[in-house]
């Protein structure tokens, strides 16, 4: 575990790690583009530190320092790492390693560890990479108090390599895979039962009653400062509002009226239009699931007050548009300030997340019946409720697992309490014969969901797959699903999680919402449909509302008779066998957006899309490997 074994490069990593792609921008390089570089990690770290010391003392970069930076920044230089042969992106890992090692070594020899001094050091290191200076400075300033607390409560210093293995788990910046997967971590106490599913779960016979209609909304990402016509290509990781050093817009880069395919969030009128579309198109709605992320992506420029105002606006809109309809909300990773931070329970009051839990308890009060135990909301922003429809909702705050929640670097076990509560709640539902839908913002398949969470969560799904009739996620912004296979049998499909996509266009996507049709007695998912509009077409006609349309219905589109785990396992086997069918899945996953269709998806991309469906725990690719072992038609 990493409890009280945090990292000294936090100041820098918060900045360079927020939007990984920005680290690898084009720049003039001093190495011929045909050169492939094999990097010895230990030597690179030592050389980088030496060159940074020289740069700090003289204000000048040597040609060797330029060479070291070019290995990270230039897109024309291929890098491999001697002790990280399996990493997905060596340059991101090298960024993490160089920044963390340099900061740690300087921190060790600094006698007065004052906040201003360490913030300046972090900013100086961050400015070396390809992020905008104001992004570096804003993120470091926002996170400084949290980082100073962690730095001041270290028992020992972990290596830069160990830090990157956790913080960049999603890029496989891992030296010692058994360490990060060690079973020595605290575990959920899993009860035994005779009802555990051993084989693939089949569909039950649906009732003859009209199915329930449940709307799934997620990832609104409202930007209250969106400016139509402003430069949408600002190279800051988030655009379409005024930012420092913004170039004037022209016809090619002007932000669209209804949103923009580039790194832009949602203008208010687009958010309102989505809600009006739902109410007009679907007059009979039985419930709404909202799986989080209201706040924009300008993570270097947030405040508690501005976040609360945006949340208040969205919650009020939902209350007005869905009057007398049960609505079940959860938190996204962007709702906190700073973004992604959900603190452990025993930290100073000014660093806790209590302010956010108090706020949502008040805002959600209209939606949650009196009998809901609000103590869990105060504890961690999660709750459970028996719906008037007859099934149980378990609403998680699984943003604790997101690896950009820097508190994981202080304690990577504090979420166990919520997972044990999830287990115990499901066990009680099992006793009472209840069926359950689980809401959680971050999908457990996401490689940026920390292994400690995904492993224990999957064990719980294994145990209660016969109780859980649906899982609903957000976060990824794409229209996807995940099949859960037993941990001890990658051929036994036992549960399914559905992702709601996003109403935002961030990034390169059409906006969408989903409609689920649910059996009134078993609460199984019978079918679902995805509604979108084409953003290119909508922005060509700013004087009229977007033309929403039903993109597809799942059963019809994929030729299925039901959406049981067994049927979806059969679908995955079909996708593994047919590249044409798998490409068709990828198209709807990307919501048929113009830029994504133009970019396309090669064989590696298609393989990754297939594996993303079958992987629900970081690093466990057994189910995927079974699928890939099948022959594939061209």
From TrEMBL:
Superkingdom, natural source: Eukaryota
CDD domains: MPP_ASMase (cd00842)
Residue stretches making up the Calcineurin-like phosphoesterase domain: 213-478
Pfam families the record matches: ASMase_C (PF19272), Metallophos (PF00149)
EC number: 3.1.4.12
Subcellular location per the Swiss-Prot or TrEMBL entry: Secreted
Record domain Sphingomyelin phosphodiesterase C-terminal: where: 508-624
Keywords recorded for this protein, A-Z: Glycoprotein, Glycosidase, Hydrolase, Metal-binding, Secreted, Signal, Zinc
Catalytic activity: a sphingomyelin + H2O = phosphocholine + an N-acylsphing-4-enine + H(+)
Co-factor(s): Zn(2+)
Principal subcellular localization: secreted
First-tier enzyme category under EC: hydrolase
PANTHER family from the UniProt entry: SPHINGOMYELIN PHOSPHODIESTERASE
Stated family: Belongs to the acid sphingomyelinase family.
Role noted for this protein: Converts sphingomyelin to ceramide.
Name listed for the protein in its UniProt record: Sphingomyelin phosphodiesterase
Originating species: Aedes albopictus
